[in-house]
TrEMBL record:
Keyword Cell inner membrane: no
PROSITE patterns: HELICASE_ATP_BIND_1 (PS51192), HELICASE_CTER (PS51194)
Species of origin: Streptomyces tagetis
Lineage: Bacteria, Bacillati, Actinomycetota, Actinomycetes, Kitasatosporales
Name of the molecule in the record: DEAD/DEAH box helicase
GO MF term set: ATP binding; helicase activity; hydrolase activity
Keyword Cytoplasm in annotation: no
Signal peptide segment: none
Residue ranges of every copy of the Helicase ATP-binding domain listed in the record: 291-450
Amino acid sequence: MGRGERDVVDGGRRLLEAAETLVQDHERVVEAVRAALRPLHDAAVERELDAIPVARLQEVTEGRLRLGTVEKSGLRTVAQVLGAGPYRLRQIPGVGALTADQLLAAARRLSEAAYETVAVHIDVDRPEERTTALVTALHVLVEAGPEARRAVDAAAGLRTRLGPPLEEAAPAAGRFGMLLAGRERKARVLAAVAEVREVAAEAARAGLPALIAQASVDLLRGPATDVAAWVDFELRSAEYYSLLAEITGRAPDAAAAEGFLPDGIAQRVHDQRLDDAQRRVSLRGYQAFGARFALAQGKVVLGDEMGLGKTVQAIAALAHLAGEGHRRFLVVCPPSVLVNWTREIETRSTLRTTLLHGPDRHGAFTDWTARGGVGLTTFDALRGFPAPDGADLGMFVVDEAHYVKNPEALRSQAVARWAERCDRVLFLTGTPMENRVGEFRNLVRMLDPALADALGEGDTPVGSAAFRTAVAPVYLRRNQDDVLTELPSLQHTDEWEEPSARDADAYREAVRAGNFMAMRRAAYLRPEGSAKLERLREIVREAGENGRKTVVFSVFRDVLDTVAAALAADGATVLGPLTGSVPAARRQRLVDEFAAVSGPAVLAAQIQAAGVGLNLQAASVVVLCEPQVKPTLEHQAVARAHRMGQVRPVRVHRLLTTGGVDERLVRLLENKTRLFDAYARRSAVAEASPDAVDVSDTEIARRIVEEEQARLGVRDEAGAVEAGADEAGAVEAAGAAGDAGDGIGRDEVGVEAG
C-alpha cells in the first residue's frame, strides 16, 4: 500500500470525524431546547390535570368508578388523585386496593394524553426566565438556518456510508499494516479504500465538507443575548415554532388561567364546586376557574380580554346556581347583544330565557318573576323595574359593565340599586382597567365600597401586579396570550344584531326591488342608525384598547367606505380600503404600512382582494361585515391573519342581522360549510383552490329573494324572480370584470357592487 491509499483513508477519517462532530453538536443544541422546554411542558401538563375534575375519570372507565367519597375527601382534580398515590386513596372510606389501582390507572391515562397534547406557549408579551431560556436555545437553530439542517442530514448520511469501509480500510492507513495480509484480505482493503475515495469525491463535488464546517461554526456560536433572541422571535416566530414542532411534535401552550390571583383567593376558588347538570357546554380550565371565582367571591368583575368566553363563564355560574335551587337571574346588557345572550343561554344551558325589552317588557317582567329563569333586559329598561328584595335573585349579571362607570348616569344608578340588593353580582367587561383606576373604583363601589375606598383617590396608573393584588377579591382578568391552549388560537363569534328601524326600512326597500346585493348590504346603507356599524365600532374600540390591530372584510366597496369613515371619525388609524382595483404592489404596501403602525390600527379590505395571497399577521382581530355566499372566501380571508407566524390569538367576529338575508344565508349554507370543513381537513387542495369544493349555489339568491318578498309581503309578481336571478348574475359578472387578471374576481359575486 502506498501514500495514495493512506491519504484517502486519512481524508475519509477527517470527513467522518467532521460529520460525527456536527451530528453531535446538533444533538447537543436540540437537547438544550428539550431541556429548556421540559419544565415549561411539565408545568403546563400539571395545570391541565389540575383543571380536569375527578368526574372525568368516570368517562375514562366508562362509569365503573364511584367517585362521591373521593370528591368528599378533598380530591377534586385528576392532578390531586395522582399526587395522592395508592396509600392515601386506600384510606378513603369505600376505596379498596382494586378501586385505588383503577383510579390511578385512569388518572395516568389522562396524564399520558395531556403529555401528548398539551403544548407550550411562548408569550412574546410577557417574557420570563424559563421562556427566555427556550427562545435563546431555539435561536441557535434558527440562526444556523435551513442549511444547517441539510448539513446535519448529509453528515448523518456520510457517517452511515463512511463508517464500515473506513473500518475495513484501516490496515491501509499504516506503512506495515498490509505486509502480513493475504491476497483476499488485501483485495477487501483495496475495495474499501476505493469506496472511501468514491464517497469522499461525491461529498467534495456536493460541497459537503464546507457545508459541514460552516454548520459546525454556526451551532457553536451559542445563544444570543436575551433581547436579541426575543426580537428575532417576534420577527420570525414561524421558524421558531416550526423547529419546536419538529423537535417535540407538540403545539404551543399558554398558562396563567388563574389571573395571577393571590394563593389564598385562588385556593378558595379551587375549593368552590361547579355543578354542570344544567350546562350544555364543556369549559376550558380557565373558564371553569372564572365561573368558580364568581361563585366563591360573590360580587366580582370578570375582566377577561375579548374572545375568552366571558358569556360562557357567566352561564356556567348561572347553571350552577340553578342546580342549587335558585330560580331567577337577571342579565342587563346593551340592546345590541340581547340576541346573542338569548342564543348563548338557550344553546349552552337548559335555563329558560325571558326577554324583558320592548313595549311588553312590564308584562314579561311579571311573567319572569312568577316563572323564573333568566331575564334579559337593557340598561334603560332596568330603570323601570323594581329592585329585588334580598335573596330573590340568584345572580345579577351586567354585561359591558364599563357602560356604568359614570356614577352620575341614570343607568349607573339603576345598576347600583340592583347590585346593592343582590348577594351575587357579576360584572363583565373586556376593557382593561389597570390604567383606569378612577373608572374601576366606580364599578368596585357597587360591589365592595370598602375596597373602593382603599384604592384611594385620583386616577394614577399602577403596575399590573400591584393592581391585581389590591383588587384580587373582586377582579379577575386573563389575556388571550395567557390562557388559550392553542397558538395561534382561532375563535369565531357570530354577532347577531337586531336591525334598527332605519336598517329595516332600507332592507324592505331592497327586498321590494328584488335586489339581492342591496339586501346583503342594507345594514350599512344608513350609517346613522346602523346596528351592525355600531357593533363594529365597539369591537374595533375594544381591540384598540387592548393594543390589537383589526382587519375589516366586506365584499362591498361602499360598505368599506362607510366603515372607514365611521372608524376614522372615532379617531382610529384606518388604512385602505384595499380593494380589487388596487394594484397588487400597492396592496402589499398597504399591508406593510398597516403592520408598521406602532399601535392599534384598522385595515379595511375587500374580501376577494385581501383574502388571497397577503399575510395579515399584524391583525389579531378580524371582522366580517356580512356572511359570504361562498364560505371558502371567509376561510381564506381569516387564514391571512390566522397562520403560522401569528404570535397572538386571532378573534373573528361575523356581523349578522336577525330575521333577513343573513339568517337565511347562514341556515342554507350551514350543511355545505360542514362538508367543506370535512374536505379541507383531508386535502391541501381546498386551501389552494376555493373551487375544490363548490359550496356556492347560483339559486341561493333567487330563493332568498323570493322567500323574503313573501315574508314581508312585498313580492312583485311581475318580475321578482327574474330580478333576483338577474341581480346575482350581474354582480358575479361585475366581480369577474372588476378584478380581471387578478385571479380572484370569480370567487364571490359583487366585487365591484355598490
